[in-house]
Write a structure and sequence with these properties.
The chain has 10 helices and 8 strands. It is an alpha+beta fold.
């Protein structure tokens, strides 16, 4: 009996506590909903006015975020969207035609391209560069899949161009060119303190062409005649993603550099480049050059800029 009374009393106390907390919970619920509605009401006007945000002004004349975004859309927006659409078109084409592109094939193309053009794809991040190579390879494979090239022609081409397939080590290098050694030392100090090399190159480098690319010189080695030998030497000696000491150049200026990637040199055998040569010879037989846009109708492409 003692246990029964105690248990009954405990149930009564719990019931009383529930009755006391109900009004409090109800009140808290009202307060929560009120605050939620207030927050939503505050947020919506801010969102609608976001495009009117001032991003610059000239003599009191305001340039809004909307103005800025519209100009960007008209300027680079079309080109950027075009690239995205074409990359997607090529991926769809690869699936339809059962075409595969391996990392090994992309590595080969990059090595061969940069052995003859150090500035190819300069200014692009490695992932973007590889994606462009991939899209290009898909297009080439689609266009040449039915073209027949004799092995004799492929072997002959390899023998005639054997030197092209002996690729020397190259270094993906960025540089900040300055007028004095002191300026170079200051730039290196700022990078050490946290400044971004790419941003600083755009702001400080006196070489306009590379400055516009964040200092990117592409993949360089001693074969690139346009690059000062002192820069090539420094690139071969420093560790990746570190900043060199100030380098004195032949024209009296100075530079600091950063190497972000090293493409090891190698000699490609016939079996390594056979498919590459076959595609090149097949492409030469096509009557006209073809771009990914040629496949838009087939894959029902629709985009913001219309026709």
């Amino acid at each position: 009996m003692k246990y029964g009374r105690s248990h009954k009393e405990e149930l009564t106390r719990q019931k009383r506590r529930k009755l006391k907390t109900k009004p409090l919970i109800f009140l808290l619920g009202i307060l929560f909903l009120s605050n939620l509605f207030w927050f939503i009401g505050w947020l919506i006007p801010e969102k609608s006015q976001g495009t009117k945000e001032e991003v610059a002004s000239v003599s009191g004349e305001v340039i809004t975020r909307e103005d800025w975004m519209t100009a960007m859309e008209k300027g680079v927006g079309r080109e950027t969207l075009l690239e995205l659409v074409n990359e997607k078109v090529m991926e769809v084409a690869a699936k339809k035609n059962d075409i595969d592109v391996t990392d090994k094939e992309i590595d080969l193309e990059l090595a061969l391209i940069h052995s003859v053009d150090n500035l190819a794809y300069s200014g692009l991040e490695p992932e973007d560069m590889r994606q462009k190579i991939r899209s290009g390879l898909i297009l080439e494979k689609v266009l040449t899949k039915d073209v027949v090239i004799e092995d004799k022609a492929i072997k002959s081409n390899f023998k005639e161009n054997k030197t092209l397939y002996h690729v020397k080590t190259a270094y993906r290098t960025a540089a900040i060119f300055v007028n004095t050694a002191e300026e170079g030392t200051q730039a290196k100090r700022e990078i050490k303190e946290g400044s971004n090399f790419t941003v600083l190159a755009k702001e400080r480098s006196i070489d306009v062409s590379s400055a516009n690319l964040g200092g990117d010189l592409g993949y360089i080695n001693e074969q690139v005649e346009s690059i000062d030998p002192a820069i090539v030497k420094a690139a071969s000696e420093i560790k990746e993603n570190t900043v060199s000491d100030v380098i004195a150049l032949n024209d009296g200026t100075f530079a600091i550099i950063q190497v972000t990637d090293t493409m090891k040199g190698r000699s490609f055998k016939f079996k390594d480049v056979k498919e590459h040569i076959k595609r090149e010879l097949a492409l030469e037989q096509l009557p006209v050059s073809v771009s990914p846009e040629a496949f838009w109708e087939e894959f029902d492409v629709k985009w913001f800029y219309g026709e």
